[in-house]
Amino acid sequence: xxxxxxxxxxxxxIATAAFIVARPAGEAKTVALWGSLISxxxxxxxxxxxxxxxxxxxxxxxxxxxxxxxLGLSISVGADGVSMMLVLLTLLLGPICVAASFSxxxxxxxxxxxxxxxxxxxxxxxxxxxxxxxxYVCFEFTxxxxxxxxxxxxxxxxxxxxxxxFLYTFTGSILALAGLIYVIWFNATxxxxxxxxxxxxxxxxxxxxxxxxxxxxxxxxxxxxxxMLLGFAVKVPLFPVHTWLPLAHTEAPTAxxxxxxxxxxxxxxxxLYRFAIPFTPIAAVDFAPFIGLLAVIGIxxxxxxxxxxxxxxxxxxxxxxxxxxxxxxxxxxxxxxxQSGSVMYMINHxxxxxxLFLLIGMVYERYHTRSMRELGGLxxxxxxxSFFMVFFVMASAGLPGLNGFISEFMCLMGTFxxxxxxxxxxxxATPGVLGPVFAILAGTGVVIGAMYLLMMTGKMVWGPLREPxxxxxxxxxxxxxxxxxxxxxxxTPLAVLCLVLGLFxxxxxxxxEAPVNDTVRWVQEHGGLRLYRDxxxxxxxxxSPAGVxxxxxxxxxxxxER
Amino acid sequence: MSSLLVLLAPEIVLFIxxxxxxxxxxxxxxxxxxxxxxxxxxxxxxxxxLAINTPANPESILPNIIPYAKAMTAGVGLLLVLLLAGTxxxxxxxxxxxxxxxxxxxxTNRAEFFAFFLxxxxxxxxxxxxxxxxxxFLALELVSxxxxxxxxxxxxxxxxxxxxxxxxxxxxxxxxxxLYGFALLYGGTGTTNLIxxxxxxxxxxxxxxxxxxxxxxxxxxxxxxxxxxxxxxMHFYTADVYQGAAAPVSAMLAFVPKTxxxxxxxxxxxxxxxxxxxxGETLAADGVGTLPRSIYVTLAAIAVLTMTVGNxxxxxxxxxxxxxxYSSIAHTGYMLVALIAGPxxxxxxxITSNGLGAVLFxxxxxxxxxxxxxxxxxxxERPQPDGEADELxxxxxxxxxxxxxxxxxxxxVICALGLLGLPPLLGFWxxxxxxxxxxSAGEIALVVILGLNSAIAAFYYLKLVTLPLxxxxxxxxxxxxxxxxxxxxxxxxxxLVLLAIIPTGIVDAAMEAADRAGTIVPANIExxxxxITAEALRDEPTPIIDR
Lengths: 562, 547
What we know:
- Chain A has 562 residues and is mostly helical.
- Chain A has helices spanning 3-22, 28-49, 81-100, 109-128, 132-141, 143-153, 158-190, 206-213, 218-235, 244-251, 254-279, 281-307, 312-333, 336-367, 383-397, 403-417, 436-461, 485-503, 506-527, 539-542, 551-559; strands at residues 65-68, 73-75.
- In chain A, a hairpin with a 4-residue loop joins strand 1 (65-68) and strand 2.
- The longest helix of chain A has 33 residues, at 158-190.
- Chain B has one domain.
- In chain B, 71% of the residues lie in helices and 1% in strands.
- Chain B has 24 helices and 3 strands.
- Chain B is globular, with a radius of gyration of 24 Å.
- The interface between A and B is large, with 37 and 39 residues.
């Protein structure tokens, strides 16, 4: 894969946005749609050019465009299997978000589509950055478009929501910046030049800094990890810094919610995966039980909150908090099972929760309410909508055969296995500090998840038809009673992917296997001993080879059984 | 002597320009009179070009600072000249043009306004050239005295006179304090030459610690100069003065005295040197360390208080100018962190770890960005019956500005985000350098406080973004000034802020300017070696027994 295609993926949306601003407002949505479709096609081309047999390596091998030579900065892009998958997810959601906004965005159309496309550039930039500052610049820049989208196009309480969103994430990430700069400084001044390529220089390359960071003392690692955790955990969001998310989701326009749930939250988990864990493995291991605890609390607590929600959108928003808990838990299992499950979860959550937000947006456009007290039995009036709703609820709840199941299962399985006290038993234990207790507690979250999602479906879809008072049967909007062709076209690709990834996830799992294995091996190498309760080096050999479980073992068991 | 003339060439040019402006500004013919502003700009341009080519001054404590500091002065000065257009004499000139009044030089302010402006910039340039405490004092006062007058005459309102008086008295207090400090410093070291002071202090430090009188002098000087940079505890005037003066003058007050103060502080601190054992008053064995403890504690306390007070009080403001004044205080606090970090003199130090360079670059970025925000205030006005217009200074006046006055609205949005330091705007890179230099010096706690403060700042800068960008306008578009150059200054600043690709040369220049500042001079090395030997002699017995 050439680096220029990655550059184009970042620059094309910016050019599209400029074009939208230049053209009359009437053409904005067409231009945005075409721009995002071309990006998607280019993304698919990039995926074909990508050498999947070598997915663990950053591709292209070298990429340097000098940016700010005075600071030793360069624009350095590349993707491994994990980045590529997340880029594809971003690009797929692009046209879907544009198309989903056609009927709901009526005023300040140019601003809307321009910021939506710019946001895409920043998100792709985050995933393909190999330079820590390019990453940070893109990571921070996502705030502005999202801020604008929520505060102009959101519902009644939008300004408070947008401000809260901005302040929470900005505060976290500025401290994360301090942590990252500490690593840069450490590499430049504390590393002997001969240690590895790039040591002893003011380098911003992630690969170089990773090598330097693991050489920091455990105390330093602890502080750097804490700084990065502050930045990324807010974005994920992890309990107890999740409070901005339900508000932002509820107030955001539909496409904003889709992007927020689909991609922006993944910037946090991606940051943990790409930076926090491999940079500071010792601290990651030390902190893992603590983070595991927060994740479990988030899973159960947010799940219980969902149960008492009346606003459907808020319900799905809280379910995001709960679901991302699984994702974080899988990451901190620090084994291949858990981490691949987690990366899978990032993609699956993007697809199914994104779709749920789209569905809720479609109902809202027709009824202007999201309250479950006022809506019910929509199957009678909107059969197509109801079909999709049930389908995506099942995917989200983790029904076997659909995508959610595999990733949830893998995250829990990885967590369960991540305990060397179980070594020698038949569960395939790997070195790790979580273990069955975490898995069982999180497992109750799955049950709670099924309960609230089914309860929501039951109220919304089944039973006698309930419509808001004053809503005559010929609704006010120009939309048909049930979904129109455009809306079906928006939902279908997501549904197909949910089904395909549920039945045959092997291609994706294979694609992320190599990079995840590398990360896991890296963590075991550099934070390894702390993974064992009894740090006797001999224990290492007793475990399965390097403690690495290949996803093939999991995939047939998961996908093939039904 | 001739080499000194070369070094002072920019100041000389500015002084000559000042004289010309003073005469031209009083000319009876309008066409000639209105040349005052372009001539001031031309003078600055020439001074800037001369400044870039000025050689290093080996006799200065900051040997390389001259080209950068003076060119920065000239560059930002040019933006300020554009912004200052039409500040004084507006209704008078209108009346003369209508033929209601006859031109009488006694009643106009144009000449002295621009002349004082140039005088102040000359003072700033002289600060950068200063090699001596007396010179430094005179230069600092040359910076400030004209600004008192400028603040007073900038509008014909009572609030400007109030601002001028407050500014003057508190300024005199500050000057008295740092003059007292300079005197004590002279008493403690026996010289007023900064390099002489540096050597004397190193000598004292090597032989048991800095003389308490000299130390008191340094601390008093720093506290006195904190008036110029608007740092706690000398920050009280800031909000009132910025609000009282006309917006273009406030923009100038936020940059010129601040820069002068920081350069003066750099000079004094370079004489002390960042080479003391952490937490002590004696030299570090390897010559790599930090400031002496008492200075360190003073400055760190000032920095933390300044950032926090500035940001927290800015949250409460309804007036844009007061908000920007408190934000100016907060930015001073940020810069102090890098000043404490100092030039990294460790061998492996890279370009990004020089705190003085970071301050110099930050000053430029802050100056430019701040001019953008003040330019918006300067451009919006409410016409008054007497011909003098009233500035729109309430946050609510920004409502929907991006729709009613797109250019001004976007300038405000971009510059506010720039002050916030959002990547990839220029402000981010400036803040990034502050972070790297402070982390390089091991000031982790200060960096965390700086980070938290930046987050607090997000709250009020967001108001400057949301109000113009996201709110719907109420009523008609606000009236704007007839002075296109003000808008132009704003647009130019915003364009510079938006320029994600840093003019790399500028960072390089800032770092080069800070180069060799506070590094160990041979005399110091000798002193350090002597102290180490003395220590070794005291520990001598043990090895002898071993043998």
